[in-house]
Amino acid sequence: MVERVLLTGAGGHVGKAILEGLADEYEWQLMFHSQPAEEPDFPYVTGEVQDYEDVAAAVDGAEAVVHLAGDPRPSAPWRSVLDNNIDGTKQMYEAAVDEGCETFVYASSNHAVGHFETDARTPEMYRADTEPFLDGTELPRPGNFYGISKAAGETIGRFYHDEHGIAVCNIRIGNLNEDHPPIDYERGQAMWLSMRDCAQLHRCALEADYDYEIVYGISDNDRKYYSLERAKEVLGYEPQDNSAEWDGDRKIA
User: Fold this and answer.
1) DSSP letters along the chain, please?
2) Max CA pair span of the chain
3) Rounded to whole angstroms, how far apart are CA atoms 250 and 185?
4) Of residues 146, 160, 216, 225, which has the active-site annotation?
5) Catalytic residue check, 146
6) pLDDT tens-place values along the chain, 253 residues long
7) Which residues have a Cβ under 8 Å from the Cβ of 79 and sit 6 or more positions away?
8) What is the spatial distance between Cα 110 and Cα 17, in angstroms, rounded to a whole number?
């Protein structure tokens, strides 16, 4: 059983969801790009993910890595995603393997398959009775440079799994919203991931037995074009939330 986990990008929304939901379940060690505004409740380091010495210091003593760090902007320029997302992910894998970590959970993104959505987007795509058509077996079709970096991160993980045997779970995270599903557009509701489902999914990824996986990170929304079958079957994910149970910002079920 995993006990000590490094969480990179701990100051972001996904990091907040994970720490709020799983604070007492692991011995966390955190990595931030810069000094956090408030003193964290767990040991931490600050540094650059593309600097091997920084990431080696961060991963020291960890048994698993949840890697969220990087430039999260869909509009991020090429130089930034190359340095922070692609090279940073490579350095993190290198340090994790050198430390002997058994598991690497990678925050991929819906943007890794953004052009599937562009081609398929129709009103029928968002109906509750529409069968999800993306299940993680499809090849990436990035919709921007950020998506390219996330697809590259999945491939970097494939290499380190094949070369070194580290278990890798890539979670293509949808639309994480802290309080309720997005109110104003169907796509956001189809892609919604609640805070507690986000925490649970990452717990499953840390505890399950697998080799190399790509799964989608959304709640069990009636409207969805990402399949949750792999996450449920391999990881044991049991999402608790559904965007259909909300009317705007008011829960109705």
Assistant:
1) ---EEEEESTTSHHHHHHHHHHTTTSEEEEEESS--SS--SS-EEE--TT-HHHHHHHHTT-SEEEE--S---TT--HHHIIIIIIIHHHHHHHHHHHHT-SEEEEEEEGGGGHHHHHHH--GGGG-TTSPP-B-S-SPP--SSHHHHHHHHHHHHHHHHHHHH--EEEEEEE-EE-SSS--SS-HHHHHTEE-HHHHHHHHHHHHHS--SEEEEEE----SS-SB--HHIIIII-------GGGEETTEE--
2) 50
3) 16
4) 146
5) yes
6) 899 999 999 999 999 999 999 999 999 999 999 999 889 999 999 999 999 999 999 999 999 999 999 999 999 999 999 999 999 999 999 999 999 999 999 999 999 999 887 765 555 666 666 677 899 999 999 999 999 999 999 999 999 999 999 999 999 999 998 778 887 677 888 899 999 999 999 999 999 999 999 999 999 999 888 999 999 999 999 999 999 898 777 788 6
7) none
8) 18
